[in-house]
């Protein structure tokens, strides 16, 4: 069963957009979010970043609305944005009202720093009247002080904060809500979302806040988000990385594709880790292939393998791959070698074949295999085995050496 088949049922909210409205929850595909790091008042720079984020896989983009100039920037950004825009609001409820005037598709409110019930209700009533959803964005680092004094920084406190905000919204008949309970501590975040999922039926926005720079930040965010998604919890996700936000959007998209929650749009590049048998610099060739494929939308799995001895067999589940041997590249489809090319043409051949594979299909490309390619590959494989033997990594020789030194065996 796929992760998507086990998703937690939720109500649905919709972020309006003239051409790309995004539904969150209620069976909609899990969406990817990111946040701009430009000054929102600089609407041209912000739009440029929004386009880059949308191109990298973001379905929804959030922009800070931290002053009047930012709200005015939003009024210029929203009509030209390729995706729905969420206004991020802290402390000043009047900026939430200004963002609604600007036409945003959603608000994010932090219940830890907009605390006066009358302010919260004024914003919720205005959002209700316009049909604009709100994300209740609870953050472990900025909890309402009285909740923190009572419950500490715990899953219970994060959930209680969200529930208090929901109660204020209910007072004005507003319930068009998604919720996040983020923490930078992965275990706290996971527990809080699990508890929240048992408590409400609203769609949930997942994130590990302040995860930090990659690779540590990517690992922390993935640990938290993937754990929950695989339990069926989570309807929209954001990686909070200290990096170019394009990396956040890309990571979010790649995670959903890896978990089978979104259809693949780009190449899934796999590569062997290399070892003593490698006939090429696998890291360099894989990076070259990644760069070449990043420009193209080819939904196939492609393998870069360091040797023809094991490469085609180990990567036989890949749609396409290339394995090196005796200064040649052995291009294979589903494990079958179809062409042998000079080593310096490996990446070009891989890209060319991937395009043909997507256009013509596997059967047609297998039928178009070069006569004799499989036999050539087998000859190269046999020659390498004869040169290197079965122990190209010299493990057995090392074991013998250890045994002779320790007197074992
Ligand atoms: S045996 Fe070949 S394919 Fe496997 S890790 Fe080593 S070089 Fe790569």
Whole-number total of structural domains:
2
Tally the helices: what do you get?
A: 15
Biggest sheet details:
8 strands, parallel
Number of strands: 15
The CATH superfamily of the largest domain turns out to be: Dihydropteroate synthase-like
- Globally, the shape reads elongated
SSE order, as H and E? Answer: EEEHEHEHEHEHHEHEHEHEHEHEEEHHHH
Give the helix level as a range of percent.
Answer: 40-55%
**First-residue to last-residue Cα separation:** 49 Å
In percent, how much strand structure appears in the residues?
15-25%
Hetero groups bound? Answer: iron/sulfur cluster
Helix/strand-derived category reads alpha/beta
CATH topology of the largest domain: TIM Barrel
Oligomer description: single chain
Descriptive notes:
This protein has 409 residues and is an alpha/beta fold. The chain has two domains: 3-258, Alpha-Beta Barrel (TIM Barrel); 268-388, 2-Layer Sandwich (Sulfite Reductase Hemoprotein, domain 1), CATH 3.30.413. The chain is built from 15 helices and 15 strands. The chain has an eight-stranded parallel sheet. Helix 2 (68-77) links the parallel strand 4 (60-64) and strand 5 (85-89). Iron/sulfur cluster binds at residues 272-275, 277-278, 305-307, 309-311, 314. Iron/sulfur cluster is lined by residues 272-275, 277-278, 305-307, 309-311, 314.
């Amino acid at each position: 069963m796929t992760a998507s088949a086990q998703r937690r049922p939720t109500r649905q909210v919709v972020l309006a957009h003239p051409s790309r409205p995004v539904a969150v929850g209620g069976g909609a595909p899990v969406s990817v979010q990111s946040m701009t790091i430009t000054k929102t008042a600089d609407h041209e720079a912000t739009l440029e970043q929004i386009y880059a984020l949308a191109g990298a896989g973001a379905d929804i983009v959030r922009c800070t609305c931290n002053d009047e100039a930012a709200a005015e920037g939003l009024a210029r950004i929203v009509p030209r944005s390729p995706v729905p825009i969420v206004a991020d609001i802290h402390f000043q409820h009047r900026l939430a009202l200004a963002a609604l005037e600007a036409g945003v598709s959603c608000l994010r409110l932090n219940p830890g720093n907009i605390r006066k019930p009358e302010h919260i209700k004024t914003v919720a009533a205005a959002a209700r009247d316009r049909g604009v959803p709100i994300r209740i964005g609870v953050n472990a680092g900025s909890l309402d002080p009285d909740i923190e004094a009572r419950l500490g920084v715990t899953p219970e406190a994060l959930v209680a904060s969200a529930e208090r905000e929901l109660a204020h919204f209910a007072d004005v008949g507003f319930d068009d809500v998604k919720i996040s309970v983020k923490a930078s501590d992965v275990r706290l975040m996971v527990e809080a979302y699990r508890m929240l999922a048992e408590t409400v039926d609203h769609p949930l926005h997942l994130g590990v806040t302040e995860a930090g720079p990659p690779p540590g930040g990517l690992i922390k965010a993935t640990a938290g988000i993937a754990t929950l998604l695989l339990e069926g919890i989570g309807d929209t996700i954001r990686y909070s990385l200290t990096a170019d936000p394009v990396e956040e959007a890309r990571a979010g998209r790649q995670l959903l594709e890896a978990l089978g929650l979104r259809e693949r749009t780009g190449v899934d590049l796999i590569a062997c880790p290399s070892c003593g048998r490698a006939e090429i610099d696998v890291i360099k060739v894989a990076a070259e292939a990644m760069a070449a494929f990043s420009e193209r939308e080819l939904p196939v799995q492609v393998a870069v393998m360091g040797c023809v001895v094991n490469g085609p067999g180990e990567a036989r589940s890949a749609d396409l791959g290339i394995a090196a041997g005796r200064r040649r590249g052995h291009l294979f489809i589903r494990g079958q070698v179809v062409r042998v090319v000079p080593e310096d043409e490996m990446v070009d051949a891989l890209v060319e074949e991937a395009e043909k594979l997507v256009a013509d299909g596997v059967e047609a490309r297998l039928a178009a295999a070069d006569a004799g390619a499989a036999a050539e590959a087998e000859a190269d494989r046999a020659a390498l085995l004869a040169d290197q033997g079965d122990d190209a990594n010299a493990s057995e020789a090392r074991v013998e050496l250890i045994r002779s030194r320790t007197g074992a065996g």
